[in-house]
Design brief:
The structure is a homodimer of 337-residue chains. Helices cover 19% and strands 25% of the residues of chain A. Chain A contains 7 helices and 21 strands. The first copy, chain A, has helices at 34-39, 41-56, 88-97, 155-159, 177-182, 241-248, 287-298; strands spanning 2-6, 13-17, 23-26, 64-65, 71-72, 81-84, 112-114, 127-129, 136-137, 140-146, 162-169, 172-173, 195-196, 200-201, 210-211, 214-215, 218-223, 226-232, 259-261, 311-315, 328-334. In chain A, strands 1, 2, 3, 4, 5 and 14 form a 6-stranded antiparallel sheet that branches.
């Protein structure tokens, strides 16, 4: 089934969305919010599934036209947002651009950062930021929402705790990252509010594209109306979602509704570090990688980071060309404090 | 007023606690949970205050004996937990022990890490961890809970957004920190679930001890029944709470109920790095600092990290000797997965 949250109050109003994203029906009689559904998933998911079945067969009373623009992020705020960096090509590229070798342990031990989760931005809402000098970048990713995960759970156990999947725009402020990481405590100001796709879907909605804990579909990234990336999220994902979740849960339990991200999707494409769409490749899922390729090739980056007014669209189509999650489609704007 | 959450479900049941921590009354008729109260603070705080006034004057019907052991952390799970490192002496000590100078910028630019907030431990509950080899340590701190804070808010604006204060045991796994920080993305597995005091209090409950955005009272740390630290939380706090909150809100808003921590309380005591209780000083608020002093003085640490069965108690008394927040008092135990 496919779930979304209409904008309402702090946590939105839960709706069930049809497979083709054309219709929706309120699910607030079952659970007022997506978090409430996740808090009691075993009991409530079958009821949501029945409503979804009725909607998809055209038999749900009170259904209405689905509008992605009316959506908040599926969880407008969450108790946990941890982002892995499962596409090690992305990590290698970032480091190579600054002449730093990547430790070989990065192939066995996932990178993960603890994100902030109290103020996500809606999928069609502007991203307000105070300064273009911060080096504004998007990062297109896939994320899962888990059920309760016990501390120390194995990847096998974690695989059974994945309840929903979404897309992510993990907005990053590249200009703030070097100084912040140099302080040693990881990202904070350099990772402002993130954005999630209008719709969260259960793994079964992906059909054969959901295999081995990975989503085997291209992630379409359109920057200022031009295709920027179409990397396949199932390729070069060194750590699958069950492994990333197990990493997050090693020393503490995860609460129902925990969002765990894949990190920026990045394909090597049988080359050393992949190539841009303009070069005939599948392109990239963030500006930083293109700048790194440019730096590796020519000694300096040519592509600028985002300016106010720039737009970013992130979407994933299934084998039939149908949008799976709806689209993140938004503009970066100047923040007037 | 003083608020707490009785253990119940995922978010507890809100109660108002008397100033002397002897009595309590359910506040669920006003707000079912502390998060719900924070979500609509302007409207609900006056009603909670009226209930508090009635309780403190012995006129609250249905009041009952307050039991700290029945409490969850005031917010059993939260949308935001960000921990500063405002006592720069702590940072200097940590670095000195490994022969690393501290950048002078650390005196102007606060260190802060993004914590996980989906699974806090109750103040009297055991802290389950899988291995003593992880270097289990406590960190005694003060934290505030904020209202909504706009992105880019000044410290002056942030000062008016502090709704409640609590104590913290920011459990840390010292053995996992070096490798994790070397990866560059900050703490994750090395910071398991944190613990907060039974009671959260409004700033006015601190009277004259709440000044300049700091709590001017000793933080009593008792380790295995022996006094380990009594550092004054108002001294050597280089950045006050409004400054730390402003740092957290620089590039994104904070949602109501955001928890912002002070970092480990640490006093220099007119010496270079402070001294232990056994040496006549005010001692420390974590084992790591004692080990650092030992390392600085003798070349190697003598005090071991926590073993299963060890207990830690964290409390703060007002000028009259009355416990302000109740006590965190708990045992580290072996986790059986």
């Amino acid at each position: 089934m496919k779930l979304a949250s209409l904008k309402q109050g702090r946590d939105g109003e839960l709706i069930v969305v049809s497979r083709d994203l054309k219709h929706a029906v309120k699910a607030s009689g079952i659970a007022p919010t997506l978090q409430a559904a996740l808090d009691d998933w075993a009991n409530l998911a079958p009821r949501l599934q029945a409503l979804s079945d009725a909607l998809n067969s055209g038999q749900a009373p009170l259904s209405f036209t689905f509008d992605e623009g009316a959506c908040a992020s599926p969880l407008p705020r969450a108790y946990q947002w941890a982002d892995g960096s499962a596409y090690v090509n992305h990590v290698e590229l970032v480091r190579k651009a600054r002449n730093a070798d990547m430790p070989t342990s990065f192939w066995q031990d996932p990178l993960m950062y603890q994100g902030g989760s109290d103020s996500f931005i809606g999928p069609r809402d502007p991203v307000p930021l105070a300064s273009e000098d911060w080096g504004i970048d998007f990062e297109a990713e896939v994320a899962v929402i888990t059920d309760d995960v016990p501390m120390g759970a194995s990847p096998e156990v974690c695989a059974d705790k994945i309840r929903l999947l979404m897309l992510v725009n993990d907005v990053s402020l590249r200009g703030l990252i070097p100084a912040e990481l140099a302080k040693g405590f990881g990202f904070f100001q350099s990772k402002p509010s993130s954005v999630f796709s209008p719709v969260a879907v259960t793994p079964d909605e992906l059909g054969a594209a959901w295999q081995d804990g990975r989503v085997h579909l291209p992630l379409l990234v359109t920057y200022n109306q031009a295709l920027f990336g179409k990397a396949n999220a199932g390729e070069d994902m060194t750590f699958n979602f069950p492994q990333i979740i197990a990493h997050a849960a090693k020393t503490r339990p995860l609460g129902a509704g925990a969002i765990i991200g894949s990190g920026t999707v990045s394909n090597k494409q049988d080359t050393e570090h992949g190539s841009a769409v303009a070069e005939g490749g599948v392109g990239y899922s963030c500006i930083a990688e293109v700048r790194m390729i440019e730096t590796i090739n020519t000694g300096q980056p040519q592509t600028a980071f985002m300016k106010f007014g720039d737009t970013i669209r992130i979407e994933m189509l299934d084998a039939q060309g149908q949008s799976v999650f709806g689209a993140i489609d938004q503009q970066v704007v100047a923040y007037k404090g």
